[in-house]
Fold this protein.
Amino acid sequence: MRRVTIKDVAKAAGVSISTVSNALNDVDVLNPETKLHVLNVVKKLNYVPDLNGKLLKSGKTKMLGFFTTSVAGPYFYTLVESMSRECDRQGYGLNVIVTKDHKVIMGNILGGRVDGVIVFEELKIDEKDIAAMERNKIKTVFLDRIVQNETMGSIIFDSYVAGYEATKYLISLGHKKIAYISGVDTMFDSVQRREGYLAALREHQFPVDENYILQGYFEEEGSYNAVKSFLHMHPGKVPDAFLAGNDLSAIGCIRALKSQGYEVPQDISVVGFDDIEIAQYFSPPLTTVRNQIARQGILVIEHLINMIHMKEQGKVQKLAGELIVRGSSHVKLDRNYKV
């Protein structure tokens, strides 16, 4: 069956093509009776405007692109849901592109397939790519690094301060041997949290032991295996506490400690990051740093659309974490140290 065109609508309604266009676009130049008549004919003929042609003519796609290597886990679920809802509220769609293929990433970004770009893809987009994006005035918001210029901004967590404060909290409980479960060494939040942890240790003149920095990759199983392996290899160096790079890592850590006969928090305290939904229901309930994940998603879309509409230039915004104390942390019984 042949597709109904705007020309067909105009003929059936007995008006010009421009009149049909004005009625569809709610241009205030028609009398109400003519507009109603045209819209009734549109409905009767089941006419669907050619959106691609309209967007091509305007030079806008009304789509935003989120580029990432993964959307697995509670953080990404919350982030993407928040961004999607805000896009819908503002009349935009959201394309989520999950890939490690550099050509696919840059082809989509530079090819005009989206009006603006959100990046959580530090491994593939480098400084040369960012320079090309800036030259092409690609409106971009980064979640994985700090970038600020006319067309680019960043909405990130203040992970350095959060890592510092979480470590300081564990020190205040009397813990002196504090281990850190790192995420991915190339990821911004993982590096910043580790640096905050190290800064707190140095400030309180605690020795920095590289053996106490484990690699959990932000994964429950990866952290479980890392902690269990550490306990087997270093039986005489069991930490007083673990600071995990995220809540999944903290949960994996607690599972590993329990499997080896340790009680949390009576023997060892554990603190995570993000405050994912399961954190409060885990046993024991997880002490963690609450990050404003849903708010980050909203702010990312707001900032990106404002740049697209030339309402503001790129900016850097850091979201503060909040320590949520629950049952996985405990005052060390032989405590003799105060912050």
About this structure: The longest strand covers residues 63-68.
